[in-house]
Amino acid sequence: NEIKVFCPATIANISCGFDVLGLALDAVGDEMVVRKTAQKGIRIVQLTGQDLPMETHQNVAGVAGLALLAESDYDGGFDIEIYKKIKAGSGIGSSAASSTGAVWAMNQLLNKPFSNLELVKFAMEGERLASGVAHADNVAPALFGGFTLVRSYEPLDIVKIPNPEELYATVIHPQIEVKTSDSRRILKTTISLEDGIKQWGNVGGLIAGLFTNDYELIGRSLVDHIVEPIRSILIPGFDKVKEEAINAGALGCGISGSGPSIFALSKGAQTAQEVADAMRKVYQKIGIEYDIHVSKIN
Ligand code: HSE
């Protein structure tokens, strides 16, 4: 009647795939305990690590859980304990981890009446609360693991993408907060055909590189002509961090989700560590506090 879950952090967009590509970071995530109760509804009974609302309708896990309950014939409820390790507003899918963890755990406790695709839909309601838009590029990899592509939102179609064995992500989080809702508001809502052509060329290239273990192709495709030029203005030192990461051997580097975290993908653990050192030095020089970690992508 009780389950403990690990809820992974995720990198959304992965440069060229705004709102459609994402990957799960197995080394970083929250913990949650979810318990069946006779009392109807969802209650957040414990929340540590971050200052976030515990009222069910104001909490992403609460809202995602209510979306599941609305589709379920279960007439009891759930108590949720959330132990946050992922910082809210850091750009590595904090809200997605909580939303996804809640619905995944509830589904287990109900003997899995829902598919992963249905769970993504419920978790997206948490994202709607967090950012105003029910994007799925963090919740999909949090649920499926590894890389995922949101091939379509209507109808929802998620494709799991394999990745080469030796692929590592380095993520640095400068200690400034960027709200997803703010960093979405500054984006333009139209793009030129010219930019579209570049962008979908890179999305196709990235997917092809992941399928064929072609690290060079992955690197050439980690380019974003549309969102990064606008959002990077909100992240002090972004251009320098990117330059240094590439010089240290990263395949590519970009904004993680809506920022301010910056990610780099590398071939091999050693390169990923060297990239971490190079990125770290930039923020040490500027004098901005940071967290940094390296994860293997499974
Ligand atoms: N795709 C979303 C965005 C991810 O970039 O706004 C937010 O984590």
From TrEMBL:
GO terms for cellular component: cytoplasm
Main location: cytoplasm
MF term (GO), any: ATP binding
UniProt domain GHMP kinase C-terminal: residue ranges: 207-284
Catalytic activity: L-homoserine + ATP = O-phospho-L-homoserine + ADP + H(+)
Domain GHMP kinase N-terminal intervals: 68-146
Keywords noted in UniProt: Amino-acid biosynthesis, ATP-binding, Cytoplasm, Kinase, Nucleotide-binding, Threonine biosynthesis, Transferase
Pathway: Amino-acid biosynthesis; L-threonine biosynthesis; L-threonine from L-aspartate: step 4/5
Xref: HAMAP family: Homoser_kinase
Function: Catalyzes the ATP-dependent phosphorylation of L-homoserine to L-homoserine phosphate.
Family: Belongs to the GHMP kinase family. Homoserine kinase subfamily.
Record NCBIfam families: PRK01212.1-4, thrB
Name of the protein described by the UniProt record: Homoserine kinase
Organism name: Arenibacter nanhaiticus
Lineage: Bacteria, Pseudomonadati, Bacteroidota, Flavobacteriia, Flavobacteriales
Gene from which the chain derives: thrB
